[in-house]
Hints:
The protein is of the alpha+beta class and about 375 residues long. The chain has helices at about 10-15, 20-30, 40-55, 70-80, 135-155, 180-190, 205, 215-225, 235-240, 250, 255-260, 275-290, 350-370, and strands at about 5-10, 60-65, 85-90, 95-100, 100-110, 110-115, 120-125, 160-165, 170-175, 265, 270, 305-315, 325-335, 340-345. It contains 13 helices and 14 strands. A 6-stranded mixed β-sheet has the order 2-3-6-7-8-9. A 3-stranded mixed β-sheet has the order 1-5-4. The longest helix has 20 residues, at about 350-370. The chain is flat, with a radius of gyration of 26 Å.
Amino acid sequence: MAKTTELTASHLYSYYRPSKCRKRVYLLHKGVPAAKPSPYDEVIKRLGERHEKAYLNTLEGVEDLSTISFSERIPKTKDLVRGGARIIYQPGFAVDTTLGTTQATIIGQPDFIIRQGNSYIIRDCKIARRIRDKDHPEIFRQLELYGWLFQQTTGLPPAGLEVVSGTGEIVRIPYDGGVAALKMLHTIDKLQKLDEEPYEPVGWSKCQRCGYFERCWKTAEVSRDIALVHGVYKGLIPVLHALGIMTIEELADLEVEFLANLRQPRGERKQRVGKDALKIIRQAEALVKRTKLVIGPLRLPPSKNFVIFDVEGLPPQLDEIDKVYLWGLQVYGDNPSPYMCALADFGSDGDRKGWFKFLKNCSEIFASYGD
Length: 371
């Protein structure tokens, strides 16, 4: 008898976060050790837990299942739903189904189910501020899966799928009957069962927060993967691979005109590489020669002094908390200034104080140097 596969809502998160990656699904399933969570990841986790607990404290008449084991939650959730409980915190669902030819048990644990009419709203707390499918598909797929699990368990479609966002707004998510989530779980199941590790192009911003960053980056460097070349977008990589161009050296040997005329998918259309071809080949040449290539002189407007401005966030390229905590300024040139730092303070007014300190620093620079 074939072994039943267990798939969870967490599998959806692992596929999409910190960035969409087929290889991470495979490595996690094979038990390949990942790096320990970074201090930033730990902060995000604690903020998520705090956000969830803060929302829980606003509710009354809650049946809290968080203190019992998951196996105990499954029958308890059914009993509470049959009994018409008003709000259930940390309910548990498990449903046997078939994904393609795979017998699977799908399990899930939403944050809350809240009674509305003769059914329940599925509601999850997320610290993300932009609850949109294009920004956070993992949130949409997870909520869709919770809705499907609820419907399979109770026979009732959910009264709604909702997210309490990082701004405190309750955002409604459309329910498709679980179609997209189950399709994604089927894809994940097939990735887990591959005989060999799948290829996945690396990228600095894409991979930096992944626990397999060091492992995958070193592999790419050893193989001289074209994905290491700045400007080679993920859509261009399979096009080059189909032509047998796999390494940085092979890419650097291409004629600019040939590369410029290749068509790559960008969004829903295909377009020529065009003027980016010269930049890509120069980047590849620099990596081959392991040196900097001077393209031309740096052209700046003439000035005796200039200001360097830098910001730090948690982190600035993501939106989970979307906050800058440090604004740095320093004047260089004939009349340099000391480093001028504006730092967000602790407390509810901390961000405001940091921002106004930054504006004050800017005013001092304009007063001293003009605009």
